[in-house]
Amino acid sequence: MTKARRDFHDHCRISWQSQSGIYKGVLDQDKVTRASLLIGLFKGLRLLFNGPLTYGWPKTANSGPGFNGKSPVQIMCAGGIPAMMKVRQHIDALRGGV
After folding, report:
1. According to a count of CB atoms within 10 Å of the terminal CB, is the N or C end of the chain lower?
2. Smallest Cα–Cα separation from 25: which of 33, 34, 15, 36?
3. For 2, which DSSP code?
4. Which positions ≥6 away from 54 have C-beta within 8 Å?
């Protein structure tokens, strides 16, 4: 597992732990931003899709604009916060948002 992918998974875990009250560490601005983006992304996915696609979409290769056959997770791991913002905006746009 690459460092970027490990960091992404750590942020997902921390996001979940902080929401559930398990995480007791200090969240710096970077972690808060990443957690917010991930929470918003998964909220949008739950509103957009049903069933396995809700949680499978981030790991599925995507031929849509901006993905070039890569999965959203690959895009976010490689591009950091700016890429996470673009993926979240993509989901919001699919839902008819801004």
Report:
1. C
2. 15
3. -
4. 42, 45, 46, 48
**Domain total in the chain:** 1
Answer yes or no: pTM beyond 0.85: no
- Distance between CA atoms of 72 and 2, rounded to whole angstroms? 16
Q: Is residue 85 part of a domain?
A: yes
* pLDDT of 65 over the 80 cut: yes
The reply to whether 70 falls in a domain is yes
Q: Residue 25: CB partners within 8 Å, gap ≥ 6?
A: 14
Pairwise CA distance, residues 31 & 10, whole Å: 10
Domain housing 86: 3-11+35-94
Catalogue the long-range contacts made by 46-55 (C-beta closer than 8 Å, 24 or more residues apart): 47/95, 48/91, 48/94, 48/95
Q: At what angle do helices 29-48 and 72-94 cross, to 10 degrees?
A: 60
Interval 37-52: pLDDT, tens: 999 999 999 999 988 8
